[in-house]
Amino acid sequence: MQDNDIIVMTEKDAVKCMKFAQPNWYALPVDAVISDSLERNLTDKIKKLKIKNNGIEHGF
């Protein structure tokens, strides 16, 4: 790697490099996108979870 090479990274990684970042380093935003079926599956699983709090079960 040369000093003038352009570096591209995610925003998540850029935060970790802020103290030593160079002007030729760039950060790209990344958005997670999940399918409708995965969203339904996760929502169903979350609704079935039961959380115990002081001996009392709460269903969501």
Give a concise summary.
With 60 residues, this protein is an alpha+beta fold. The protein has helices at 11-16, 36-48, and strands at residues 7-10, 25-28, 50-53, 56-59. The radius of gyration is 21 Å and the shape is elongated.
So how many helices? 2
Largest pleated sheet: 2 strands, parallel
Spans of at least 5 consecutive residues whose pLDDT stays below 50 are: none
The helix/strand order is EHEHEE
Q: Could you say which overall geometry the principal axes of the C-alpha atoms support?
A: elongated
Gyration radius over CA: 21 Å
| Helix percent band | 25-40%
How many DSSP-defined strands?
4
Describe this structure in words.
The protein has two helices and four strands; from the N terminus they run βαβαββ. It has helices spanning 11-16, 36-48; strands at residues 7-10, 25-28, 50-53, 56-59. Strands 1-2 form a two-stranded parallel ribbon. Helix 1 (11-16) links the parallel strand 1 and strand 2.
What is the element layout, followed by pairings?
Elements (H helix, E strand, L loop, with lengths): L6 E4 H6 L8 E4 L7 H13 L1 E4 L2 E4 L1
Question: What characteristics describe this protein?
Answer:
single chain; 27% strand; two-stranded parallel ribbon; alpha+beta; 60 residues; 2 helices
